[in-house]
Structures are given as C-alpha cells and as structure tokens.
C-alpha cells in the first residue's frame, strides 16, 4: 500500500518511515497542505494522513473520491477542520487521534502550576538582572497545602488529578458527565468548586457550555490570589475578564497554553514580525502571565503516537471499511 502524509514536520518523519518499514507499506511525506490543486497527485496512492488545522475546502471530499481515496487520517485530536456531512456524501471516512498521550498535557499543566506557585518567572527576571534578593513578592506556597480544582476530569484531567495528588495536594473536581476518579472530591456546582480552590486547572473540551466558563462572574467566586492554568482550549477563558482579575489582584497569576485568538500566532515564528493583537501583547508583557504556544502535547511519545495511530487507522479503513477512531 502507498500512503501520503501531508503537512509533515521533521519530527514526524522518522516515526512515519519506521512505521512503513515495519508494516511493509510505502510512505511518502510532504510538507504541503492537501488542497484542490494537489489532490490529483493522489492517483497512485491508497491512503492519506493530514495535520492541517485550518478548514478544508468543502469540494475536497468529492475530489478525493474521484481519485480513489476513501479516507483521511487526521493526526490531531481536533476535527473541526473537516466537514463530516460533505465527507460522508462522498464516502470519505475521517479518523482522528482521540488520545495520543494525556500525560504529556497533564505534566505540562503541573509544570506550569509549579512555575506559578513558586514565582519562577519573577525569580528568573530578578536573577537575569543580578538581583539575588528574597522578599514577599517571591515567597511561595507548597502544593501539599493547596486545594487544586480540576475542571473537566476526562482523560487529561484524570492524569492531572493523579499528579497533583502525588504532590500531596487536595484535589477537587467539577465534571457534570464523569465523576469516576479516585481521590477527587467532586462538586456539582461550578461556582462552589471555584470558591474552594487555590489553583484551577482547565481540561474541558471546547463547546457552547465551556465557552468563557472562566469569565467575570466565575472569577468573582475565586479565592483572592488564586492561580489559573489553561491547557484546554482558548475559548474557555474570557481573556479580558482574566486580565481584569489579574489587574485587580483577584487572580495571582495565570499560565495559558491556549488563547482564544491564538490561530494567527501559535505555531508561527513572529520573531521578526509585529503582533497586532493588543490582548496578546498585554499578556506577553506581564510577569504574572505565562504564555506558551499550544505546546503542552508536544512530547516524543505523543508525536510518535499521533503518526502511528493515524497510519494504523488509515490501514484499518482501507482493509475493513471502518475504524474505532472514525469521527
Ligand atoms: P476528554 O473528553 O477525555 O475529557 C474532557 C472532560 O470534560 C470529560 O470528562 C467531560 O465530561 C468534561 N466536560 C465536558 N463538558 C464539561 C463542562 N461543561 N464542565 C466540566 N466538565 C466538562 O478530553 P481530553 O482528551 O482530556 O482533553 C481535554 C482538553 O484538552 C480538550 O479541550 C483538548 O482539546 C485539550 N487538549 C490540549 C492540548 C494541548 O496541547 N494544549 C492537547 C490535547 C488536548
């Protein structure tokens, strides 16, 4: 079988070629996106895998069908770039990677939580200026004396809860749909849970219910000086309300791996370009905010899983017409 991987990054290539060798299939890696202009190049191929985050042209599914391609194996968890209905109309099965490594994201959340709680950003800035003093601005809390609220106790939230438990913290949870996690005290009311927490970590999906779940109102229920970590999706936090909470001292500090208007910026190099987004500029300028470019997932294990699971799913669809990872 001959499989083409679009949008390939250097770090993915070796995993793809090794999979091809082990499974005896021919692998072709290209950096370009799948578009209407290059779909005709697929006539000699049996299957494809993609990584594009922007929406596909609705005509792509018919074009794929015409060249004999029956599936698209996405290499991400998200699948909002696909039009499921259009794909189904043209018999294209789409698969995603539901979970490539919950630990990767959970460990990053814990890492950022520790950085906030230990004031690492402030200490680093002082030391860079050869200021080696200690004072109340950098005195820390210890996780074992804190209550951590995990909002969204699914695959990643469960691992986060476990890791925070490992530090001796009291872990509480808010998840209306899944309360199956040991050592977590669940609350049915979000505001009550928020009012009990010293640090909140978000692990919910992006949907209408979770849109701006951290807003001016929920922030008003936070303890004074609470910490916020968001490694879920940008839209879960109303960034303007967060900035207000930080300016008023209600929130001590926040770590954002995701940002509601991240799409023009994250994963791109802006080192020689100016940033137009005033809110992002504000976030980047502050020492009480840690920004990272949606990178929590980015471990070798996760990348290997993303490549291999997508290729396994492609094979499954070609051989059996279905896959457990079909969206
Ligand atoms: P999951 O589906 O396993 O867990 C999500 C949990 O949230 C579920 O238990 C669900 O019941 C709960 N939930 C749904 N609506 C809720 C609500 N309104 N309030 C509270 N809980 C609610 O998802 P998973 O795999 O744990 O992913 C969590 C988040 O992490 C997703 O937003 C995903 O996009 C994001 N993510 C971020 C990455 C990064 O690199 N920063 C990488 C991978 C995932």
From TrEMBL:
The keyword Translocase does not apply. It holds the Pfam family 2-Hacid_dh_C. Residues 113-296 form the D-isomer specific 2-hydroxyacid dehydrogenase NAD-binding domain. InterPro entries: D-isomer_2_OHA_DH_cat_dom, D-isomer_DH_NAD-bd, D-LDH-like, NAD(P)-bd_dom_sf. PANTHER family: 2-HYDROXYACID DEHYDROGENASE HOMOLOG 1-RELATED. Belongs to the D-isomer specific 2-hydroxyacid dehydrogenase family. This is D-2-hydroxyacid dehydrogenase. The lineage of its organism: Bacteria, Bacillati, Bacillota, Bacilli, Bacillales.
